[in-house]
């Protein structure tokens, strides 16, 4: 409203802005790797990088899920506590001797069901996504607390591919993550469901007028988030080896941070899972490098919070300039 | 918005007013609790109940103002702002040896500063409030931890400062009588009787229309976030006077309570609609509810989930009511 008009001589051209927007994350990633290679001994070793992959695989799937609803101009702040509930159920079933394939199926179904709760409240109840998921996050936390009942559940990886196992130095779980991101990237780009997500995120009313089933698509997106959380929960069990009362709570912000830092617009309609993978790599390497440098882990929240604020500022400011340049209105 | 000038409102309108519903709910809950537990209505319990309510009431007031200001306004950082302000006050009082009263003043100003960071990013840069305050939620919370290395601070039990949090005047806790009640009284008066209140509803309803009648939309919205930060810091001052220690996790999860109270109080999440007097009643409901659960030995972890249910239920209720009402 009161944005000052920049003298045109100093204003970057629209094309330059687009290039800058797309190139920023790769540049930052390279700069980050160079910085930590110099500052933190052992950072660029194969063993350390494999560790980073294993330690951030569950987070990657959460971030992929959050990307889907952010594309819709929604949000899901319940993914962390939701993961905790599914992790408890999965670990408990596994310890009780349930066949591993069945555990996987149940975890995916349970995740999908919990996601459907969010979807039903957002679409059917017409509650804003933030209020819905803030509420269900609290409910999921309590559900886990009641299930946990003062007893930690210790369990190993349900199947080897969902644990820290490596094949020839390559972490298997990394391949699972890549496969999921590959499928999602394909669906978002080439399938009707994916294109509808973008259409709704850009202009829900316009999409509805064009015949896009807005409610059904949004509901499906929230269910899909739950399914991804279900898979992530089993990876979490394989990585941590124990499910405690607050399992998963710490993962919500980094998941949203990966989406935002990756450059998926929080206003919806622009972005994708591959960008999220880049954002996730940036955050995972940042947390790892900082620990290797000997900075106390208490600083993690400060760094991630600052990264999110800067990324959003950059995204919204360049987007607005671009919109003004090309005469688009949003 | 204000219907004070009209002589009569239809009975159905008055019954479906959120505040009537909340008032009935408070009484019903209170009656139920006192039946379930003979200790519920004891004077000591009523005291402790409202002492706890004073802090989250201040946060809920700040969040309500921000939501009323519209354009997706929300402040998720209030809990962390409370934690960080409390720690800053501890550093001033304990490490610098400042008088707790003076430290409290500085702390409220510091809280406004924390709010102004949100306000700057939201109102001046036009960034989405949800993400801005989510990132400051983690930023402020983590800073509070970093500043104390995870430990706690004290130095508040001097110069009669504890009286603010631990004494009662005519049976009413000092922080309720001297802080919470005046804050809500001023806010309710301002909402209904001043130009500020009218402007608040105008920017909450339509940015464009408000700008066209000459309101500096961005400045007003910036101030709302500052106000929310200052109220959170005031909550920290009250907490420090009450518990006499400042912990970096003091405000953890309080944003959920604050937003629940705002939504339950009938503040419409898209801005421009709702009464702060309704928020005060919702505060009473939540305080009675959590105190009753406490007496029934339902732990904090379970209360969190019940609060989540209340939040979702209240939001559903808001939608049902607003669907029926015109506009």
From TrEMBL, chain A:
The chain crosses the membrane at residues 23-47, 59-90, 102-123, 130-148, 168-188, 218-239, 251-269, 301-322. It is a multi-pass membrane protein. GO terms for molecular function: transmembrane transporter activity. Its main location: membrane. InterPro entries: ABC_transp_permease (IPR001851). The keyword Transport applies. The keyword Calcium does not apply. GO terms for cellular component: plasma membrane. Keywords: Cell inner membrane, Cell membrane, Membrane, Transmembrane, Transmembrane helix, Transport. It is found in: Cell membrane. The complex is composed of two ATP-binding proteins (LsrA), two transmembrane proteins (LsrC and LsrD) and a solute-binding protein (LsrB). Part of the ABC transporter complex LsrABCD involved in autoinducer 2 (AI-2) import. Probably responsible for the translocation of the substrate across the membrane. This is Autoinducer 2 import system permease protein LsrC.
UniProtKB/TrEMBL annotation, chain B:
PANTHER family: ABC TRANSPORTER PERMEASE PROTEIN YPHD-RELATED-RELATED (PTHR32196), AUTOINDUCER 2 IMPORT SYSTEM PERMEASE PROTEIN LSRD (PTHR32196:SF71). The chain crosses the membrane at residues 20-40, 46-69, 76-95, 101-123, 130-148, 168-190, 224-244, 250-271, 278-296, 302-321. It is found in: Cell membrane. One of its GO terms (molecular function) is transmembrane transporter activity. GO terms for cellular component: plasma membrane. InterPro entries: ABC_transp_permease. This is Autoinducer 2 import system permease protein LsrD. The keyword Nucleotidyltransferase does not apply. It is a multi-pass membrane protein. Keywords: Cell inner membrane, Cell membrane, Membrane, Transmembrane, Transmembrane helix, Transport. CDD domains: TM_PBP1_transp_AraH_like (cd06579). It comes from Nonomuraea longispora.
